[in-house]
Structures are given as C-alpha cells and as structure tokens.
Write a sequence for this structure.
C-alpha cells in the first residue's frame, strides 16, 4: 500500500512568514501575490510531490499549515 501526502494551508491563519517556503525540501510553497482577509500575503501551494516530512507543519508558528495523508 502506498501513501500520498498533501499539504494544506489555512489562508486565514497564515501571516506569510515564509518558514514553510524555506524548510520544504521539494519547494512546493510560495508566498501569494494577493493578501488574505487580514492583509497578509499568505503561503500557497504551487507544486506537487510532497514527501510527508511535515517540516512545514512542525515549523509553522501560526498552525496554518498541515499535511494530510492518504493511503492508496
């Protein structure tokens, strides 16, 4: 059985600090070009191939990023 991982971002919680962008080993995050409802430029997901390391989730100071695991 294989596993697939999907990072998710709660854009209303994200303050755009960029930590997840920096720590992601496969570089699937970037900062948006438009602000969220609170005026922050939030993190968006621009790629695929999440390896499930969860560094983004562990390092996010605002608990805005989390990783969902699906069993295929």
């Amino acid at each position: 059985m294989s596993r697939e991982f999907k990072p998710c971002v709660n854009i209303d919680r994200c303050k755009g600090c960029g930590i997840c962008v920096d720590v992601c080993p496969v570089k699937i995050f970037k900062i948006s070009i438009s602000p969220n409802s609170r005026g922050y430029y939030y993190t968006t997901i621009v790629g695929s191939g999440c390896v499930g390391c969860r560094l983004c989730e562990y390092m996010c100071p605002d608990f805005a990023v989390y990783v969902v695991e699906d069993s295929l």
The first strand starts at residue 3 and ends at 9. The chain has one domain: 3-71. The chain is about 15% helix and 35% strand. The beta strands are 3-9, 29-35, 41-45, 65-71.
